[in-house]
């Protein structure tokens, strides 16, 4: 049974894996994410649906106890060309069908979406949801092989997105913005256009992402606003020899053509 977190200096593991390889942890992710959403009055959101568990192009990051018993937060990277549209496509297509053209423009070279970002109250204030998961998403996107990464950002995740090199994508919605996931919340479409080079990332964030890319399994003490957290990074994705990005891109083209037919 997991002991409670040390409030002064929590120790956690930040682990990445392909969704279809670890259904048990996916269930824990879903349980925690659903609880966080319900706490703020959100019961319907495309990125919280559970069919991503069976999507071979979905990759998961979890912040968990060192024994793996408890999940304190997480996020996902979905690659365009899986067995479901990207959450951003599902969320915005009815409002602006141009999203399909935009995603395909990037998907030809491999693109994905950072989605389902959350952290529990137990670990709030340590930067898990605002910094460290976003950095790891940028790092594993390089490992997966995609060239770009989208995100539908809430107001409080715009600055962390910009820190890793994301920029506003103004060509959908109202200059890139939508009311989502409910009418009193604004979401902003952002994209990291150059996963390999991170040319617009802030220097501190770029350095941290490159260190994760170069040391996929490493323990680091991170400091945010004078708070320390020890993170055991386990970001080497298992079974990547079964991952074929070119086949996924081919499937993305089929999905795009089908979407255009049904518009």
Structure, described:
- This protein has one domain: Aminopeptidase, CATH 3.40.630.30.
- The protein is built from 7 helices and 10 strands.
- 34% of the residues lie in helices and 25% in strands.
- The protein is α+β, with helices and mostly antiparallel strands and 263 residues long.
- α3 runs antiparallel to α7 and α4 packs across α6.
- Strands 1, 2, 3, 4, 5, 6, 7, 8, 9 and 10 form a 10-stranded mixed beta sheet that branches.
Rg from alpha-carbon coordinates? 17 Å
Helicity range of the residues?
Answer: 25-40%
Structural class: alpha+beta
User: What's the number of helices?
Assistant: 7
User: What does the largest sheet look like?
Assistant: 10 strands, mixed
**Text of the CATH class:** Alpha Beta
Distance between the termini: 51 Å
Shape verdict? globular
Helix and strand run: EHEEHHEHEHEEEHEEH
Number of strands: 10
Q: What's the CATH H-level superfamily name?
A: Gcn5-related N-acetyltransferase (GNAT)
Low-confidence stretches: none
β-sheet strand percentage: 25-35%
The oligomeric state is: single chain
